[in-house]
Backbone:
């Protein structure tokens, strides 16, 4: 039914300006903005490698952070990726029930090496080694 229909992912943030800085400057993703006027009417459009789009919209005080991973970045070298995040002041998140190394990377043999972190709105993101 939707096999040839363009689609995109979306999630909310509490501060679109902070999201613009984090995703555009800190993570280095191409960003575009839509909407004019007051910030609560503006949205952020990320372009991921390969051309996929992610729509980020403001919810202000009504924002509730996602309790699951909203965006995964597939990397060749997870150690370098985590080192780069830490150098920018982003600390990996550690979850109960998982074992982590000193860097905050979960290296469970049942899946890829993964490290979770959050954006300024406390949404969960991850880097996974491909």
Residues:
């Amino acid at each position: 039914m939707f096999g040839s229909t363009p689609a995109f992912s979306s999630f909310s943030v509490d501060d679109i300006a902070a999201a613009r800085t984090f995703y555009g400057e800190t993570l280095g993703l191409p960003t575009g903005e839509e909407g004019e006027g007051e910030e609560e009417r503006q949205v952020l459009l990320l372009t991921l490698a390969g051309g996929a789009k992610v729509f980020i919209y403001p919810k202000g005080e009504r924002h509730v952070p996602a309790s699951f991973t909203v965006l995964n970045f597939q990397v060749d070298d997870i150690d370098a990726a985590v080192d780069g995040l830490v150098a920018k002041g982003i600390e990996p998140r550690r979850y109960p029930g998982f074992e982590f190394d000193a860097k905050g990377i979960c290296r469970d043999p049942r899946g890829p090496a993964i490290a979770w972190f959050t954006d300024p709105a406390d949404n969960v993101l991850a880097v996974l080694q491909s």
Remarks:
- The radius of gyration is 16 Å.
- The CA atoms of residues 43 and 57 lie 5 Å apart.
- The chain has two domains: 9-61, 69-129.
